[in-house]
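Data availability (excerpt). The following record was deposited with the supplementary files.
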Amino acid sequence: MPKTRRPGLPGVRRDRPVPLWMLLPLFFVGVYLSHVTLLRLPYFWDEAGYYIPAAWDFFRTGSLIPSTTLSNAHPPLPSLYLALWWKLGGMVPSVTRTAMCLVAAIALLGVYRISLVLTGRIEVAAVTVVLTAIYPVWFAQSTLAHADLFAAAATLWALSYYFAGGLGNFIAAALLFSVAVLAKETAIAVPFALAMYELAIAWINSGNKGGSRETPLPTQLLFLAVPVLPLAAWYAWHWHKTGFIFGNPEFLRYNATATLTPPRILIALGIRILDVTAYMNMFVPVLCMFAAMILPALPEAGESAELRPRVPFTAQGRIYAIIAVNLLLFSLLGGALLNRYLLPLYPLMLLLCVNTWRRRVRYWPALAALTAVAFFTGLIRNPPYRFAPEDNLAYADVIRLHQQAIARIVHQFPHSTVLTAWPGSDELTKPELGYVRQPIPVVRIENFSLDEIQKAAHLTDPYTVAFPFSTKYDPPNLPFLLGPRSEAWETKFFDFHHDLPPEAIAHLLDGQVIWEADRKGQWAAVLHFERPQLASLTGHRAN
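Predicted structure:
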């Protein structure tokens, strides 16, 4: 009796899967419980800098254009979603992070569906989901209120329909890609990559008269172009309201115009390739995949005439196109090379790895276990190179350090004006971020490098307390090739600097270190200065 086939993917056997609606609660509980100790943490870095203020402004005023922070022209879907949850449960971090757990669960369900569509094997889908969920970057982003997780969830679901093929699935994919771009504008890269791939394949096969498509190419391209419409409408409305299409001029300069130099693009592209093949121990599954490709394909159990299937070549080509376009896009754009921008790529890479293991290695679950150990290690231990704290549990260390420092300031110096840098300046002045109950006036500097501290020594603003902290992770034992040799271009192209230690800052500013603490290379401190403070100026606030 012939095996059941998945429509649009000949050669892929389909197991009888559990209905997806039954899996979503299971996925949500798994994500929620694995993050339960993180749910009450106040907001961190770009959450505090943009996404939470933007959603807070919409929640209070109904305006899609934020007023308490500069508009970056990001589409409004995350603000709408968070405001709905705050309406139901209150504007507290635990509600926000629970809401993000649900988005993460929906995204993982999309990973599961893609895996079933492309391989037909429940075990491949299950392992891919688990490895995605514990990959350090994905795990950390699963409770952080960034737009990237929203876009990844919608994009992965769109791909699960697109890979299945057929007119109805293309319609669903077009709608989901539209949701993705309304969460984060850069999600347009995925339908663009697919359109370029379909055009390239059509050109290559133009002389093959025997080939045919279930859905005509013009129709397919039309569906892939649909997400441009809501994105263009958003930008038109944003321009009408603010006079800027792509956000405020400084945001545009930092993330676009200042990044378009050939040396920086080449360096960024090299880093981006490492990001999807080696970063945070991703090299473990990738190297295992390449090693497995040396071995011959294994037969299915009890079906000696049938080899274990690969991910279809057409789907592989589309995945490679998606990865290539995203790597190029985020080498051209983005002042900071944040790995959350690549969030949809990690499960696609892991799917290719897992299916290759199953196809060619008899005891492939051992490779999955090895990868899980590597990912868990990357989650709790910092790597021997510079990275963004939001890429593993280091972000929780930073938040807890800032909580302790601010609590010390509130308790010992409640009426002080504090010298600090962003995001500490926002944490002290915006109670909605969860660090203070009442705003504390600040004097803001850019960072805690020698140049900035020397400038602070000559400021006329009357500050009596300083709140310095590590703004860059600087590993103590940096490999030689990643150390002094790379520091010059990191400083030139990626805003790298060395933060002075608290004792040096206190010496230069003629102050005293009242408190300091360190967590795995991240640090924070509270300094006090014996100087008068004019009452009339204690309301000075950061811009």
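Summary of structural features: Residues 1-8, 533-543 have pLDDT under 50 and may be disordered.
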